[in-house]
Amino acid sequence: MLRGVLLDTGPLVAYFCPGERHHEWAVRQFETFVPPALTCEAVLAESCFLLARAGVSPDRVLAKLSQGALRIGLSLEQEAGALASLMQRYANLPMSLADACLVRLAETRPGPLCTLDRDFRVYRRNGHVPLDLIMPEDL
After folding, report:
1. Is residue 73 within 8 Å of residue 39, measured between CB atoms?
2. Does residue 24 have a pLDDT over 90?
3. Cis peptide preceding 94, ω within 30 of 0
4. Integer Cα distance of 9 and 98 in angstroms
5. Domain coordinates of the chain in residue numbers?
């Protein structure tokens, strides 16, 4: 069982969408997580938007937050400077706010990061340390 997992948008959406390519993978991963998984407001906003677009109620994500299965792991207000620095460092990708929040979370609360986003292979914790990723083998 994994504790302190950092959670990105892709696996969260795949978990709730049976038609998603990585749905079964996401379900298997979530079964190995000891709650709460840590995430950020930007990931929740992206997830709610994508779920609504797929015809799935975004309330399901918020229910996981209310139940304690998900927890917000950082304060955007307190981390704004660090987030801006990360987004500038990776402007060539470009880095989204959600990605910056997750990299910052990995810097402050090291734990494995569950994602479907290949960009996390490029991102570095504290400028040089590769992230510990949980990703499907086909990515």
Report:
1. yes
2. yes
3. yes
4. 8
5. 2-129
Tell me the CB-side half-sphere exposure of residue 2, using CA atoms within 13 A.
20
Looking at the chain, which runs of residues are DSSP E strands?
6-7, 37-39, 70-72, 113-114, 124-125, 129-130, 133-134
Locus of tokens 């990995």? 106
Distances (CA, A) of 49 to 13, 17, 54, 128: 10, 13, 9, 32
Q: Domain 2-129 carries which CATH code?
A: 3.40.50.1010
- Which are the contacts of 60, defined by CB distance < 8 A and separation ≥ 6? 16, 51
- Condensed to tens digits (0 to 9), the pLDDT of residues 78-133 reads 999 999 999 999 999 999 999 999 999 999 998 999 999 999 999 999 999 999 99
Amino acid at 25: W
> How far, in Å, are 27, 78, 81, 90, 118 from residue 11 at the CA level?
9, 26, 27, 22, 13
Please tell me the pTM assigned to this model. Answer: 0.95
